[in-house]
Structures are given as C-alpha cells and as structure tokens.
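Lecture 7 notes: from sequence to structure.

We start with a single chain of 372 residues. Read the sequence below before looking at the structure.
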Amino acid sequence: MSGNRNGSPDRSGQPHSIVLTRSAANYYLSPGPVLGRTLVADGEIYHVTGVIQDRPANSDLRIDALVSKDFSSVAWTDFDVDVYTFLLFRTAPDLQRFNRRLPGLTTKYTQPELDRQGIKEYHFNFEAEKLTDVHFSKGKLADEPKGNRQFLAIFSALALSTRLSFGGWQMALLALLLFPATTLLAGGYPAFVLSRFSPVKALKGPSGQTKGVGLRKLLTVTQFAIALAMLAGTVVIYQQMQFIAHKDLVADRSGIVCITLPADSAIRAAAPAFIQALRQESSIQDISVGSGLPAEGVQMASTTGYTAGKQRIIMLNYFFIDPQLLPMLHIPLVAGRNFSDSLQTDKQTAFIVNQALVHTMGWKSGLGESLE
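Now the structure, written as tokens:
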C-alpha cells in the first residue's frame, strides 16, 4: 500500500483523485512510478494519489479503483439509488436502535422529493448492517453470491477438528480408512451385548430388586433415543445429498467456459475480432456473447412496471444476452419465445423475465407486459 510519499500533499479527498489497486496500477501505469500520474476515463482526468492491495477473490467488496466524489453539493436524485454510505462509529453501535431512527430521516429528506415527482405511493427504506455481515445478507444492490452462516459454522468446525486431529492429508486418509472399522466396533459391540438382554428384565430388573431400576430405564431409553436420532439424521443427510446430486438446476453448464473481458475500452473495442477468432475454432460448438453474468457482478437497476394500469417501481437484476445463450444452457421457456437476431425490436425493447418476477408483479403470464 502506498500514497502521499515524499511529503507530497494529500489529494485523495479532492475531486478527480483516484486510488488504484496494485493490479490496476500495474496494468495501466507499469512500469515506472504510479503516484502523481494521471488517468483519463470518460474524458475526465484523474490524478493517482494512492495504491492499495488487491481485494481477496472471495471478497464482497470488489474494488479496482476508488474515485473521489463530493456528494454534499449535489441532490441525491441526480444519481441512481445504488449508492452505499459507510459509517465509522466511535464506539460499538446499537444497530437496532440506529435502524429505528432511519425512517425519520427518510420522512424528512427523501419522501418530500418523491412527493414532488408525483410518486407519493412509493417510499424508500434504508437499512444499516455491519460490514462483517454483508456476506450473509441478501437482496442488496450489486449483490454477490452469498454464504450460509449455519453451513459456514458447521464446516469451519469440521475443518478445524480435522486439522487439529490429523495435521495432514496422510493422517486424514488414515482416519478415513479407520473410520468404518471404528464405527463397526463401536456400534457392533453394544448391539451384540444388548441383543442378549431381555427388554422386560432390563427395564424392570430381577424380581424383588428395585434399586437402580430408574437409572437403568433412563439409560436404556436414552441410548435407544440417541440411536434413533442418529439413524434419522443419517436418512436426512442421505436425502439432502441425493437432492444436491440430482436437483435440476434448469441451466446445463457442463462443457461451458465463461471468459470475462477486462473493463478496458481498448480491449472491448477488439472484442468482435476476438469473438470471430473463437468461432473459427473447430473445437468450439457455439458461442454466446453478453454481459452482467455473476462472474462480472450482478447488474441491478430500478425498473418501472405496470399491473392493471398501476405503476410499480422495483429493483431488478439484469443480464444482457444474445439468442444463443438459452439454447446453449438448455434453459426452457415456460411461455413466449426466445430473442431473434432478425427482429430489431428484440435488441432494443424486448425482455425475457423469470417466473418470480411474474409472480411479484401479479401478472397472469407476463407476455405483452411493459417494463421501463
């Protein structure tokens, strides 16, 4: 990480300042020093004021560059709503109490602007969450694939236990080989011993003997309850594994490779030639070109729809595709048709939506409905 070296003035908070990741700095400005140099993006000149380490590949905050922007002098309606605000509290905050105060700010600052634009029936809801919880929350703008907190805890514990107990793959393999034998001995011996018992005598004890009968009953019932619970757990796990192995994911991804082009205007300009070269490869059966796939980050935008003549604004995830993608992934259409290269209107105004959106909007089939 570098920045503000040799006593140079700190420009990182000034307009037209930019901080790059190490990879971006090496890509655009290598070789030579980086700090103090300039980049041109969309006709604007930006001064490089710092370099940060690359974010981990599994990070929810995917950053290539940070651009300084002064939001205090512009109206919030001048920008799309996909803007996050980061707060650094002096002490550990009470987020529940903080979230209870946010509706008051909405009523005071955002609702009047919505009313002036003639959309009084719509409201903004803001939510604060810890940065460490972002990976597990869903339904947010620019969402990345999310994790499951319960699964993470379970598999982390299993991984830690395996690492502490075995220390290496050789011992793990040995444990895997010994596990069936250990399980057979641990479960088989009590089974053989219990098979010699008479359930009535085991529960009641010898005639005339009452001491310890209650404890024996408790231990016997507890053992059988634990055995039944383990058997039920085994059945559930087996069913879940069968579900994972055979669940129809709708899209068939076998044999398909996703190539993501860098977000560089010069490289994107050469994309048609690159795609044409791929089409000439005899080993490639088909090619689909698009953007917005999860590998690039989901693109979300506010969308206006209509249900029974009533306007409704919702946030939707968008994927820009060509007619080849659905057949390539073997994704069936429930209703309607695929896009067509022969119809110019398909390239400009046509949408293919999923059943979840049809249900959300309250449409009967979705065919012929309008989105803006």
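Confidence is low (pLDDT under 50) at residues 5-9. Keep this in mind for problem set 3.
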